[in-house]
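Support request, priority: normal
Reporter: lab tech (M.K.)
Component: structure prediction queue

Hi team, I submitted a job for RNase H type-1 domain-containing protein from Arabis alpina yesterday, and the status page still shows it as pending. I've pasted the exact input below so you can check whether something in the sequence is tripping the parser. The sequence length should be 416 residues. Please let me know if I need to resubmit or if it's stuck on your end.
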Amino acid sequence: MGIYGMVTGKAGKSGFGSASTAEDVTHGIDANHLTAIITGGTSGIGLEAARVLAMRGAHVIIAARNTKAANESKEMIVQMNPNARVDFLQLDLSSTKSVRSFVHQFLALNLPLNILINNAGVMFCPFQLTEDGIESQFATNHIGHFLLTNLLLDKMKSTSKESRIEGRIVNLSSVAHTYTYSQGIKFDSINDPDGYSEKKAYGQSKLSNLLHSNALSRKLKEEGVNITVNSVHPGLVTTNLFRHSGLGMKVFKAMSFFLWKDITQGAATTCYVALNPNMKGVTGKYFADCNVTAPSKFGTNDSLADKLWDFSRRVLSPLDAELHSFLWAMSSLRLHGRYCSVFHTDSQELVNMVADPDSWPRFQSELAEFQELRTSFPDFTLTYCSRGKNEKADLLAKNARLHNSAFDYVSTSIPL
Ligand SMILES: NC(=O)c1ccc[n+]([C@@H]2O[C@H](COP(=O)([O-])OP(=O)(O)OC[C@H]3O[C@@H](n4cnc5c(N)ncnc54)[C@H](OP(=O)(O)O)[C@@H]3O)[C@@H](O)[C@H]2O)c1
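Reply from support: The job had stalled in the queue. We restarted it manually and it finished. Here are the results:
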């Protein structure tokens, strides 16, 4: 569609364009037989999408972290449409524990699930690690949704199979996916505060949303599952998303006022992809202004999408939860000006190490290195982290102390 379409609102091939509203693109659609989850349905685009899906008859589950805002949103939707079926379940996407708990609660309701709209998002946040030790924009925008989608997939598969109705997953990406780090996704330093850019980290997370859609779409196609997965750029829409943006964005907005949409238009592409019958069988595509559009080069890179898929799975594995805690421990110790090194093992390895010190080749060679370091860094601290219980880590520390009493040891047990 391009700038011309954005400015003029001219309809594209789908019959809709940037001026279309969520109500326009769902006009006449009966969604009474559908159940949809919308993350972040308490504000901006998500709230409008929730309102319009409920208006078309869908049973909408708002997944949000703020109970007060969720109740107010629900009240507002029901006030406008007393027949609306809207429920709320708590979900904080920045916490894998909360995502798991949300899915547990949703599955306990024994509802079908036809539509999943991964809408919630944060933008331009200052560097911060989540409670799982993951950079917050990547964690909230991508990892939380990646986990949520994977945990809900069986439910969506069984719903589509039993109902014979196509399931639909919609990921809110952004045109900002084009503005990311030079390598697309910083797999080897995702949690590194050095070189962190609030804007590029947001772009990286939105590229991840797009690549997640593409990879999942391919996997479901290969499996022959009747669920489509697409990503959307909703347009430039004035919402709370801009809470962390500075003067530069205000100036940009003033200069580009003719490109901005209101909320009713901002939710149109999401609702079109989620509900419109024209979308039947369309999967693995990226949409803007209710029409298929071309993403960036990174956005069409299948091997990058596969790499992100594997990386996201590893981030979510218990071992990686441990690794992230290590990184956190390291960065916090560095902040205190202390040298820190880390052993990384699982509890089984730990038991062997305690039982038979001579079979610790890696540990032995590291010890020699530490001894050298100790001469240059008298303030040396060895942080030992393990998946095992505290006693095991303590035992290792005690045993290691017998080998070289010159070291200080801090043992940490990482909760899984
Ligand atoms: N607005 C635009 O111009 C634009 C452009 C391109 C893409 N997008 C994308 O569109 C989506 C919706 O954004 P919006 O503009 O509607 O912004 P918004 O008004 O700020 O809405 C974002 C929603 O996400 C929720 N959220 C944030 N962090 C969360 C967390 N950890 N757990 C659960 N929910 C969380 C927010 O809840 P709280 O109220 O509790 O924070 C809010 O309900 C985002 O994915 C954004 O990247 C927007």
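Residues 326-362, 377-390, 402-416 have pLDDT under 50 and may be disordered. Residues 39-40, 42-46, 64-66, 69, 91-94, 119-123, 140, 172, 174, 233-234, 236-237, 239-241 surround NAP (CB under 6 Å). Let us know if anything else looks off. Ticket resolved.
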